[in-house]
Amino acid sequence: MVKNENAFTTVSYNKGVLTLLDQTKLPIEEAYIDFKTVEGVARAIETMVVRGAPAIGVTAAYGIALAAHRGEDIGESHERLSRTRPTAVNLFWALDRMKSVWSQGATLSCIEKEAHDIYKEDVESCRKIGEYGAEFIDDGATILTHCNAGALATSEYGTALSVIRAAHNQGKKIKVFANETRPLLQGARLTAWELMKDGIDVTVVPDSALAHLLSKDLIDCAVVGSDRIAANGDVANKIGTRSVACLLHLHGRPLYVAAPWSTIDMSLENGAMIPIEERISKEITHIGETQVVPTGVKVFNAAFDITPVKWVTRIITELGSTGMDIQRDLLKQLLGKGNKK
Question: Does residue 273 lie within any of the structural domains?
Answer without folding.
Answer: yes
